[in-house]
Automatic annotation (TrEMBL):
InterPro entries: AAA+_ATPase, ABC_transporter-like_ATP-bd, ABC_transporter-like_CS, Metal_Ion_Import_ABC, P-loop_NTPase. This is ABC transporter. Gene3D superfamilies: P-loop containing nucleotide triphosphate hydrolases. The keyword Kinase does not apply. Signal peptide: none annotated. Residues 248-268 have a biased composition (Basic and acidic residues). Belongs to the ABC transporter superfamily. Residues 1-21 have a biased composition (Low complexity). Residues 29-261 form the ABC transporter domain. Residues 1-26, 241-281 are annotated as: Disordered. The keyword Membrane does not apply. GO terms for molecular function: ATP binding; ATP hydrolysis activity. It comes from Cellulomonas aerilata. Keywords: ATP-binding, Nucleotide-binding, Transport.
């Protein structure tokens, strides 16, 4: 199921919203008028973001536009100055079912001071708050998650011996192992080779079909283009576009680039291999 509902949609409640079929859909993320202030500067300025169950949305914007800060605020990693955030029907805080949420932060190493193996790092994704021991079938789930990112053959290797891109894939597996209902990913495929990006896109699309909601920070849609139907574009911490994905452009990272382009659903011609998009009719 893929549904889009921007802030301009009919009002929703944390528990759900009636769809066109009349069936109640669960709202996975309900952020209203979110402001974040860091170091005395307003970094996120009045963002509204409502994501429904199974929706795949990309968060785009130039460097420094506030994408990471916004997703970090959504998962409670930085405090919000004002506004409200509800995740999976629960106000941000201890009541949120964090075990149902996977988060891949931006560009962190999977290697810690501890010589953990890839399987151990992924297994840590199964631990949370009150659960300090692995659930049943943990090993099977760990290996399945590593297999999804093409690294099961490295399961017993210390992560510090893996390349940067492989470490990133370990972190993706750590989020996937939870079989999350909500997945928040901050530039998950930066530094990841194209075949792995495509495998990741396939995995995400299967998760979305199953009802997982995905919010992914990207600079270019890249291999994920076929599954992203909604793009939220930030500029200076505010949403300047929320709707169909913008056309790819080579200058997306330029400060003055507005990230908003006319979109044509029949725009195969607008999507060129040079822009890094894999176009599927
Ligand atoms: N802890 C902090 N204290 C002060 N300013 C911060 C802090 N963290 C981020 N910022 C500032 O907030 C702004 C937005 O940063 P953020 O990392 O959210 O942008 P981004 O859109 O994710 O950028 P990029 O595409 O480069 O990853 C930047 O100007 C950054 O310097």
């Amino acid at each position: 199921m893929l549904v889009t509902a921007g802030p301009s949609s009919a009002p929703t409640s944390p528990s759900g919203t009636p769809g066109s079929s009349g069936r109640r859909r669960t709202v996975a993320v309900d952020a209203r008028d979110v402001h974040v202030v860091l170091g005395g500067s307003a970094i996120v300025r009045g963002v509204d973001l409502v994501l429904e169950e199974g929706e795949v949305a990309a968060l785009l914007g130039a460097n420094g536009s506030g994408k990471s800060t916004l997703v970090r605020a959504l998962v409670g990693a930085v405090p919000i100055a004002s506004g409200s955030v509800t995740l999976l029907g629960h106000p941000l805080g201890r009541g949120v079912p964090w075990e149902r949420i996977g988060y891949v932060p931006q560009r962190v190493s999977a290697a810690t001071g501890v010589p953990a193996t890839a399987a151990e790092v992924v297994g840590s994704g199964l631990l949370h708050g009150r659960r300090l021991w692995p659930p049943r079938h943990a090993q099977r789930r760990v290996h399945a998650a590593l297999d999804l990112v093409g690294l099961d053959h490295h399961a017993e290797r210390p992560v510090r011996e893996l390349s940067g891109g492989q470490q990133q894939r370990v972190l993706i597996a750590r989020a996937l192992v939870r079989e999350p209902d909500l997945l928040v990913l901050d530039e998950p495929v930066a530094g990841v080779d194209l075949p792995s990006q495509q495998a990741f896109a396939t995995t995400l699309s299967r998760l979305a079909e199953r009802g997982t909601t995905v919010l992914v920070v990207l600079h270019e849609l890249g291999a994920l283009a076929p599954l992203v139907r909604r793009a939220v574009v930030l500029r200076h911490g505010a949403v300047v576009h929320d709707g169909a994905p913008p056309r790819p452009a080579h200058d997306h990272d330029a400060d003055e680039h507005d990230h908003v382009h006319p979109h044509d659903d029949d725009a195969g011609l607008a999507r060129t291999p040079a822009a890094g998009l894999r176009w599927e009719p």
